[in-house]
UniProtKB/TrEMBL annotation:
Matching Pfam families: Sec3_CC
GO cellular component: exocyst; plasma membrane
Name of the protein: Exocyst complex component Sec3 coiled-coil domain-containing protein
Exocyst complex component Sec3 coiled-coil domain ranges (all copies): 2-84
PANTHER family: EXOCYST COMPLEX COMPONENT 1 ISOFORM X1, SEC3/SYNTAXIN-RELATED
Length: 106
């Protein structure tokens, strides 16, 4: 009779342990999925940022355009058009724009 009670106690403990292990495995699987999704999102956002980023020389030209007697109006105009092209990708109605899904992310 004592042996039956002891076995019943161990059986109950084992059931609880199995339940706890299943919960831990489920949580672990969700965390692994979230980690993979976060990695993919980070890669996508880095690619997107590299597509939208202007070259350093273009940024410098737009930040402090050399207006003056020897100004290079053609290079300033090209830099402005590059900026315009990048900004148009953020306009939902423009051809070649980013997907609406990306544009609506906050």
């Amino acid at each position: 009779e004592d042996l039956d009670e002891t076995l019943l106690v161990f059986d109950t403990k084992l059931r609880h342990m199995r339940s706890d292990l299943a919960a831990i495995e489920g949580s672990n699987n969700r965390l692994e999925l979230q980690s993979r999704n976060n990695g993919r999102l980070m890669d996508t956002l880095q690619d997107l940022l590299s597509e939208l980023r202007l070259p350093a020389d273009v940024e410098a030209l737009l930040e402090a355009p050399p207006f003056g007697r020897d100004s290079k109006l053609d290079s300033i105009t090209r830099a402005a058009w590059q900026l315009h092209g990048r900004l148009r990708r953020l306009d939902p109605g423009a051809p070649g724009c980013l997907s609406l899904y990306l544009l609506q992310m906050r």
